[in-house]
Amino acid sequence: MAETPLYCSECYNTHARANDAQVKAAESAGRMPMTRQGTCIKCGKATIVVYYEA
Fold it and tell me: For residue 16, what pLDDT is reported?
């Protein structure tokens, strides 16, 4: 299943919610954010990341 880009919680709150069209569309559709271990595409930090299944 496709998913939105992976963001750490910091980048998700400061960048993704305002600037990422896929994240904004998923939020508008009422989808619930999911988390897993991964690497943030914005800052490169390896941590728990936030994403949506598309």
Answer: 97
